Amino acid sequence: MQLRDKNVIMDDMGMKRALTRIAHEIIERNKGVEDVAIVGIRRRGGPLAQRLAARIEEIEGVKVPVGILDITLYRDDLTTLASQPLVHRTEVNFDINGLIIVLVDDVLYTGRTVRAAMDALIDLGRPKTIQLAVLVDRGHRELPIKADFIGKNVPTSRQEIISVQVKEIDNKDGVVIQEVIDT
Fold this sequence. Notes:
This protein is an alpha/beta fold. The chain is 30% helix and 31% strand. The termini are close together.
């Protein structure tokens, strides 16, 4: 399968602005960040969660707890991924009981990743509330899941792919719509 970039949705400054806006929305909705913790879904949700926490600290002067959640064993497509899926460590080094957890992911698509993440979170404790922040909402939900905080809504076809790149993993920031090209 070969992919071709079709459209740049966000550059590095666009991502920074979207994350800053989401940080402000999190603070406003929760009337501060006293009981807020941020948990990123492993891979690109992790760096985005850390960036959100840094923005919140810049704005409020309060350091919020940040964790990274591995959802590999909670996926409903686990048997189709690989015979030996690679499981990483969940790094949530604080008690989530009674906290407002802002779950962070790069792209919201079918909702299945978020469902798996909520299952993984509930295994760690009983948060007061789980809120969802995503950089891009592309539609096509298969489960009744809706983001509370969205960087950008991007209507897509199912044949298109949203590629989020973060410096921490990809050495650059950006969001691109890609399409599959026949070879």
